[in-house]
Amino acid sequence: RRIAVKSSERLAGVYAKRRKLIQQGVGAEATGDSAHETTKEEKGIPGFWCSVLCSHQDFADRVTSADSAALQYLEDIQCVTTKDAIVVKFVFSRNCPFLEPSGSVLSRTYFLNAAGEVDRIDGAAPQWRAGKELTIKRLGKGKRGEKVKRQRSFFQFFEKKHDGDAVESLMEELELMTAIRDDIVPDAVALFSSLTENTEGLTSEQLRTLEALGAIAEEAAQLRSAIESQLTQASRTNDNALRALYDERKEQILPLCGHGSSFWCEVFSRHPNVGPMVSPADAAVLEYVSDVRVTVADDATSPASLVLTIEFIDGPFMEEHTAHIRVAQLSDGGIQGEADKFQWKAQGEQELAGAHGDTSLFSALERPPSPVTFGLLSAIRTSVVPYAMY
Predict the structure, then answer these.
(1) Residue 290 to residue 267: CA distance in whole angstroms
(2) 50-82 pLDDT per residue, tens
(3) 47 Rama sector, left if φ>0, alpha if ψ -120 to 50, beta otherwise
(4) Is the CB of residue 34 less than 8 Å from the CB of residue 215?
(5) Nearest of 22, 56, 359 to residue 202 by alpha carbon
(6) Beta strands across the sheet bearing 105-112
(7) What is the DSSP string of 243-259?
(8) Helices marked H in 280-326
(9) pLDDT tens-digit series, residues 297-355
(10) Which residues have a Cβ under 8 Å from the Cβ of 167 and sit 6 or more positions away?
């Protein structure tokens, strides 16, 4: 995580240059001649961040026409990683007619536990100017005062509160946060340029600004590539350092396997996200598991290329003693991977399917690679395998 924090700090300088260009443009700065300064209308690229959000598949349908009017005043989107949290910030102009000047920065903070998973979320609701609320609709006065109802708005993202059992709502917000971190912030220029309607009508000075933004995007991409190489090497070094400890743990567990041991079943079942997936049929299979590990792939160029290895002893379920599942998250957010289908003995597969079918842990691992699969492997890597003895 130290490298992730350092990378966030190093990229901040590049993104600061991007913000200045978006707001001020290159015209006056490039010429150095007040006679050639850009006009107020040509200055920077108005509505840049609104266009970026509307160009992303996860946000396009969330931005209403009313939201779009407010997002014209959005000056920057930031995502900062610290040692304890991931902080998302939407920085608006203090002149925004929808938000109070004191609330021009909307933020969500995602606090991380020791395993790097989001432990809790904190954030204040937008401070709307009187009568400018975008997340509610006023219906007039009733007997008990003014009637209001919630209405669809992108800004509901900043008002979310998750109850203890609101798993679906929580997962949805985490997916949006990930999209902001992995797509919106690093690929803003590419997203803006991806739709012709965003670039039509730009002045010559704005086109030059867009070109300069492209150069900054390339600088950031090269920096991220270097940082990713560091992260990959650090992850591989960590895997190598833990190998001997995990080998020793395996030797301690091995004599218990197949004799009523519930070691790996207990480990998986106690995890808050993985546990609900463990069915009684899975528990029976896990009795014959001798080792579980998730490592960075040997040929990986990114720390987001993971390999799950599960080892089994002889038993009534598996023909083969080892199974591998490989899943990688691509730079564009896509998922690819391959899996050795579990080599079930006929009776063992029937027992699993008959008990819980597609809802079981093993069935989930056998599905085509998806963000869910990647999330599952990440959870196993960061907070199942390392803390198994606890």
Answers:
(1) 13
(2) 999 999 999 999 999 999 999 999 999 999 988
(3) left
(4) no
(5) 22
(6) 74-81, 85-92, 105-112, 118-122
(7) HHHHHHHHHHHGGGTTT
(8) 280-286
(9) 988 888 889 999 999 998 888 888 999 999 988 765 678 887 667 888 876 555 555 44
(10) none
Q: Which two tokens stand for residue 228?
A: 């990713």
Predicted confidence (pLDDT) per residue in 242-299, tens digit: 999 999 999 998 888 877 667 899 999 988 888 888 888 888 889 999 999 999 998 8
What backbone torsions phi and psi does residue 313 show, to the nearest 5 degrees? -95, 175
Pair of tokens at residue 37? 């300064």
Taking each continuous run of H as one helix and of E as one strand, the counts in the chain are: 13, 10
* Torsion-angle region of 184 (φ positive above 0: left; ψ -120 to 50: alpha; else: beta): alpha
- In the numeric block, the tokens 């842990």 are attached to 361
Using the structure block, give the residue that is written with the tokens 């040997």. Answer: 298
Cα four-point dihedral sign 357, 359, 365, 367: positive
Q: How big, in percent rounded to 5, are the helix, strand and coil portions of the chain? A: 50, 20, 35
pLDDT class of 189 with cuts at 50, 70, 90: very high
Which tokens is 121 given? 């979320």
